[in-house]
Amino acid sequence: MDDDRSLAALGLDANLGKAPWTYPGVAPEESGLLAEEEYLRLSPVKGRRLGQWQVELPCGRGRRSEAHGAQTWVPLNYALLWYNQAPVDHRYPVLAVGSNASPGQLVRKYEHGPMPVLPMTRAKVWGLAAGVSAHISAAGYVPATPIVVDNEQSDEENKPSDMFVCWPSVSQLKALDETERRNYRRLFLPAKRFPVELRSGEQLGGCYAYVSDRGCLLAEDKTPLRLIGQHELLASLLGRSEKLRTIFGRTPRTMARRAAEGGDDLRERGRQVFEQEGWIGTQPELESMQPANLRYDQLPPEGWVRCQRELESVQSVDLRYDRLPPERSTEQDTSPDGYRVASSPDDFDRHGQANVRLPSAAFAELGSPELVVVRRGLSGSTDQKTAVLARAEVVPQAADDQTVEADQIVRNAVGVEVGESVVLASARLRRWRWPERVGLGEPNYVTCRVQPADLTAMEAEVCLIDSLTLELLGLQSGDQAVVEGLPGPGGEVPQIRIKAFRVSEEVQQRRECLHGGDQTGRFPSSRDALGVFPDLPWVFLDRSTRVSLGLVGQTLGTVRIRASRRYQFAKELRELLLLIGLAFFGLVALVKNCWRWVLLGGLVALVMVVVTVRMRGRLTHTLGGDHRKRTGSSSGR
User: Fold this and answer.
1) How many Cβ atoms from other residues are within 10 Å of residue 367's Cβ?
2) What residues are paired with 187 via a beta bridge?
3) Does the N terminus or the C terminus of the chain have fewer Cβ atoms within 10 A?
4) Angle, CA of 206, 187 and 91, to the nearest 5°
5) Residues 422, 426, 427, CA angle at the centre, nearest 5°?
6) Cα 570 off chain centre by
7) Contact present, 599 and 587 (Cβ < 8 Å)
8) Angle (CA) 248 249 251, round 5°
9) How crowded is residue 471: how many other Cβ atoms within 10 Å of its Cβ?
10) Which tens digit of pLDDT belongs to each residue from 296-309?
11) Using a CB cutoff of 8 Å and minimum separation of 24, what contacts does 439-442 make?
């Protein structure tokens, strides 16, 4: 296998400035990740969204490839993270109608801008084809523009166009806009009118295209001219007009060279010839599209009525990929009982837990549960057993009865992307409510990924977790924690009390070195099996504990952990018992009447208040008072 993925080695480094008659340059044969001046293989994953597509990182890129000296296939979002680039959710889908499908041309367009690291995916596009813009570029070629294809034409003529979709980040998009602004406008194309389908089967919820402000060239039958090779196109135009031959010469290379060297005035004379010959047509349907600025993560799915109405009147809205679910999912996507996933907003009280917000109809159908179990809803998936427990809440004024809002922790736990589907089941938890009644508030939870116990803790009723997780839970190493697993057929969540110890760096590093691969491995990696990176914090549990928590057969299972408040109450009280004892003997010696018992009762009450305040400060999720009300209004959705 040839490992040289440089543009030069692949023949993708065409320079249109030096050879304008080669426009639109050389496009790759397959999807890829343009990473500086390399074009890495990018393989679609059937039924999954773009962030889960697999990139082949060459030898030396990433920890595992360095260790094994071979190529490593990783999720696209992981590869973008490795290059310190924006993830897929924060990128924009842009149709590459002309030279934007040429990696060499893109590199040169970004020569003075942000580093060109962006995915390029092949796609089928209906309703559009590559036409010819009615102007001559500064480089000397006649560039492309999208043209509308009549859907009433014959099946042969109405075949989808094979195009590339580029995925620039916000800074890359601004730089690309700057290179196109002189002659083009970037317009948003709705999915219902111009469907765009990726090789994974995903139909995008919308896409962008640069449409020429100069109109399009017409063929001799007055239909929009289709884009062909530049040499053939220039020869055809010269053959149709004596005026063009007088200005630019009689050969395509001569025309391209004179147009590049002659300046704006000469190129404008060429455009005037187009107009005098009656070759210029318009694209009213495209020109009427809104020049919106919508990101893939922010475009609503089909049926999201409220947001669809907002889009119809939008002029410049910043919508990203993670709020742009696919217009149509593949046959592998959603189970009959599944719900489409959207990201949750920032401005609501999570009560110290991972949350799933459901429409009122779905909430009632599940029996108005306090908790739900979330699993991926992709049929045929090998990781459907991976599940996570989350708090359930009703979405006020939900716009879509088939969409649920899930926190990032929930989505990472089961490896589901925004726009994919999940299956929900209700769960119930038996828990004493007296801590809330005495003012301790609701407990703070951390959702952790389960790892088989290390030999040092094997067959011992303990769990090992990292320092930060202990601090978030308000625990010290050796304190007692409550671990909640996944419910069985009855729907009741199993829970155990267990001592939590800080995992040593040696154990953590040893496991990081060993883990990798899909769920068939001894220590599978969430990156390889679920496409998740970084992962949830780890908790090391032995087999008997995993069985007690209902995690049989789950190699990448999750649990929720909270501090044992009963244990913490006893611990705090023990620390203050000495104070109570000394005070009691002091009161007996100083106070001779019944007031000593009143004072002792007051001291005990004070101790209880101090214990409650200290526990609330360490173990609960809120700062108290109206903190959420003061800050919630400023949180972004």
Assistant:
1) 9
2) 209
3) N
4) 55
5) 125
6) 44
7) yes
8) 110
9) 12
10) 565 544 433 333 33
11) 439/612, 439/616, 440/565, 440/612, 440/615, 440/616, 440/619, 440/620, 441/616, 441/620, 441/621, 441/622, 442/351, 442/352, 442/620, 442/621
